[in-house]
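Researcher: Going back to the complex we discussed earlier. I've cleaned up the inputs and rechecked each line, so this should be the final set. Can you rerun the prediction on the complete assembly and write out the structure?
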Amino acid sequence: MNLETIGQQARQASYALAMLSSQKKNEVLQTVAQCLRANQDPILKANDQDMEKGKQKGLNEGLLDRLKLDPARLEAMADSLLDIVKLEDPIGEILEERILTNGLKIQKKRVPIGVIGMIYEARPNVTLDAFSICFKSGNAVILKGGSDALLSNIAITQCIQTGLEQCGVDPFSIQLIESTSHEDTQRFMSMTKWIDVIIPRGSARLIQSVMNNAKVPVIETGAGNCHIYIDNTADLKKAVEIVYNAKTQRIGVCNAAESLLVQKEIAPKILPLIQKRLNEKEVCLKVDDEAYAILKEQPGRIEHATAEDWKTEYLDYILSVKIVSDVQEAIDHINQYSTHHSECIVSEDPQAAQQFLDQIDSACVYWNASTRFTDGGVFGLGAEIGISTGKIHARGPMGLKEMTSYKYTIQGNGQVR
Amino acid sequence: MNLETIGQQARQASYALAMLSSQKKNEVLQTVAQCLRANQDPILKANDQDMEKGKQKGLNEGLLDRLKLDPARLEAMADSLLDIVKLEDPIGEILEERILTNGLKIQKKRVPIGVIGMIYEARPNVTLDAFSICFKSGNAVILKGGSDALLSNIAITQCIQTGLEQCGVDPFSIQLIESTSHEDTQRFMSMTKWIDVIIPRGSARLIQSVMNNAKVPVIETGAGNCHIYIDNTADLKKAVEIVYNAKTQRIGVCNAAESLLVQKEIAPKILPLIQKRLNEKEVCLKVDDEAYAILKEQPGRIEHATAEDWKTEYLDYILSVKIVSDVQEAIDHINQYSTHHSECIVSEDPQAAQQFLDQIDSACVYWNASTRFTDGGVFGLGAEIGISTGKIHARGPMGLKEMTSYKYTIQGNGQVR
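Model: Rerun complete. Updated structure for the full complex:
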């Protein structure tokens, strides 16, 4: 299938989608859920083939687990569509309205963005997530998933298209790019006429590559070098538990903590307690010289940090540790090295906390709570297509509203200027 | 000056700017207005040198007029700063607030974007406009103006920096790139670490070049291939006056009409009336065959349109004219050829009008009013840094609010997940 044709079809579908009623959109989502259940066998069979190829190719356990579908996972995917049905349709909301002295009535109205391009890794569930969020917000979507999940993605996309057709809705509301060539990916990211925005989802490397090569506007997502700063006034117990939770509750996610900053006066007291708690998960600490001096006699894995550690998102049982003199040094360090995702201050001093909340240049800034809460569901958005670490268009978790734009309509009776 | 240094200085300044009170920002704007008045002589002298070079280089009248500063224009520029003082400061607004069942208090708060890059042509007044809007919204700005205005821009920037220093505010809140090399412009557009968004302002060609070459996110602005569609139910007088106004009131602006679509039944009646009115300004009509047949016996300039005409922004006394069978054909044509800026339907049929307002994929869609109203001032934004024709981040006129982002702050008392 020619990429230009895919783009043109998506644009055409987007015009019809923008006009669909909430009721019709919900009908489609329910029908697609039924189709997923009815087509469990062909989808699982396609996934088996992907898994087989993946094993032959030597994909690691983590990747294979993300690729794997089974009846329970498919059932959860179908259920997730029904969750989207329950969410309020953002389209058509009047954001502002004014009548000018010359009688012109200006309305600012929420509309879909149009055509969304998604580039992601070999995770077939993202195929359905991307569709459901884009569709409910009135957008057509073009998907470019990881090649290791190609057969699974084809089967899921066909199933969705069947559901769309059953409801009399343009099946090109979702399209999958089956080509795995680098050139086609590059061309896809350059189709400014047909695609309004590209959202990459996956590793820092994938996101960076899209940011560097796309001509279509990109919303940067995901990579999280998240920091926790422990102020000299911190409650020791809160500090230990927040660090333990943010680092170890789930290591492979973007809102996990990767770096710990500790105010120098409290460091000798708190660092051994933190290390002790993290030893339960055998976390390796990459520490600066001062922290090394404090921890070297204690049991636990410690290594000297290098400059590279301050900017590393480990996604592993590893945490970098640095001693700082005050909240300002912590803020400066974080603003320099973070990926602007989620950061936390643990402190009982409201003034230091406010300074941190105000001056940290990240999407989500916490005071005395784990960074693990950064999530569209937790924040009440109902669903999440990604977490923006950029400042343009959307920041933090992106739900249905973040997949919209607006337009002005102006009604007159012959006014000229 | 090294570009990396400029970027780093801008980022540093942006952190302080984000914390400035509205009162302090207004004090700076007032001080800069005074500095402009006090430094009239050196600014006009620098502008004289630019004008002299421009004449030697053979710049046309229009370009020289845009480059030219005089005491009255400088006075108007100083006054414009005081207009910005009057506008409400958007920073710090709480956009949303919720308390979760676990006690976490989540606030979504409006913050500056950070560092704005502006790329524009040889119009020294834009230097001041860009500063005042970026500054009041708490952003640092890096400017890359047209090389023909370099000396004027240096003088104005120095004057602004003097005002900033007098108020004890980081003078790097505004910086001008003095290099005119293509490589430096390319490097400027690639500094994703230091610049959050680039806003190009100028010709379609300049904007396209920035869109194609920037790695920093770009907000597409300005180019306006604006359409007027006359429906079969149109009021003849309204139609004639709207077309006349939208085409001729000011030809060089992005909200001027460039293309006229006429429903075929009303065409024999309305086209001669429109032509007669446009003859007052000697407008040349580039018409399709059907329109040619209607107009060929009438006095006035007509030429056969080519496919190229449908996508041309003339910015001249030229209007393309096409006969269509109904509102749907008009919508399809416009969505295919427009630059998504401003379009108008002239109609007395509310159903056709609603269809047009709903389905036209442009920033501003008019019913019975001239497209010339698309403007930040008219829309009540108070000021305008450009008109976005993209759908990401901002659409239509961009004022202070459109120069902001938001962040989430989350307050807890030790919550973990």
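Model: Worth noting: The two ends of chain B are 48 Å apart (CA to CA).
Researcher: Good, that matches what I expected from the previous run.
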